[in-house]
């Protein structure tokens, strides 16, 4: 019977946990990008004209924040060695 040392088990768990984390981060970015695209399409469409000016401004700010957040996720994933 082969014994595995505690450090090897910890390393395996850490590696597995890190891969899970990377996948969650990637999924988060993909979902965010989909939502930002839909919001961008709405903002650039005709339906936005039916909204009050305050809502238009807030949606524009929301879109900008979503794009900034997406860029941050992109940089984090890049630094982790994930090419997008």
Question: How would you summarize the topology of this molecule?
Answer:
Blueprint: H1 6-43, H2 53-79
Helix pairs in contact: 1-2
Features:
84 residues; mainly alpha; 2 helices; 0% strand
What is the gyration radius calculated from CA atoms?
20 Å
Residue share in helix: over 70%
**Could you give the distance between the termini?**
42 Å
Query: What's the number of extended β-strand segments?
Result: 0
User: Count of helices?
Assistant: 2
**Element order, helices and strands?**
HH
Helix and strand content put the structural class at mainly alpha
Strand content: under 5%
What profile does the largest beta sheet have? Answer: none
Mean pLDDT over all positions:
89
**What is the approximate shape?**
elongated
List low-confidence stretches.
Answer: none
Describe the structure.
The protein has 2 helices and no strands. It has about 80 residues and is an all-alpha fold. It has a domain at about 25-80. Helix 1 runs antiparallel to helix 2. It starts with 5 loop residues before the first helix and ends in a 5-residue tail after the last helix.
In brief, what are we looking at here?
By secondary structure, this protein is mainly α. The chain has 2 helices and no strands.
